[in-house]
Design goal:
Elements lengths: L3 H23 L4 H13 L4 H8 L3 H14 L2 E6 L2 E9 L1 H25 L2 H8 L1 H13 L18
Antiparallel strand pairs: 1-2
Helix pairs in contact: 1-5, 2-5, 3-4
Length: 159
């Protein structure tokens, strides 16, 4: 039986290092730009306050990022349909294309590393990882499991 805390720490550091290394070698967009475009792409239009909260930055910092994105033609502002006085930020086709280029560069860099560094058997093993990480993500995101520290094998879980 693996030590869950040790495994969790190994995963945290390994995944973090992989993400940081891939981004540092492949990203063309600055992190605030990429993070904001990513949120708008995944979640749709949003206010500056909402973007700042989700990115955990000050409103002033997010306002500057949105201004930079507007100057690049990657976002535009429009009236909030739910609040006549408010404005929301939406990604433009140019912004989506820039984000797609960044994502493609990361994917290609990682695909090259997989092909060069791993044996075919290791690649097959790695192919199982995304589904496992998706399950862990869903479990970690579920508020019902926020304080759940029980071992699934203790509850008769067949997995």
């Amino acid at each position: 039986m693996p030590d869950h805390e040790h495994l969790a720490e190994r995963l945290r550091t390994s995944i973090g290092a992989l993400v940081r290394t891939t981004r540092s070698r492949a990203d063309a967009l600055a992190p605030p730009i990429a993070q904001t475009l990513g949120l708008l792409d995944r979640d749709g239009e949003a206010s500056i306050a909402s973007l700042a909260q989700r990115r955990r930055v000050r409103h002033q910092s997010q306002s500057r990022t949105v201004k930079d994105l507007e100057d690049l033609g990657y976002v535009h502002r429009r009236h909030d349909p739910h609040d006549g006085r408010g404005r929301v930020i939406a990604i433009t086709p140019e912004g989506r294309a820039a984000l797609d280029r960044d994502r493609r560069a990361r994917r290609d860099r990682l695909a090259t590393a997989i092909a060069a560094a791993l044996t075919p058997a290791e690649q097959d093993l790695l192919a199982e990882l995304p589904a496992l990480l998706d399950r862990l993500t869903a479990h970690a995101a579920d508020p019902a499991h926020a304080a759940d520290t029980t071992d699934p094998s203790d509850a008769g879980d067949p997995r």
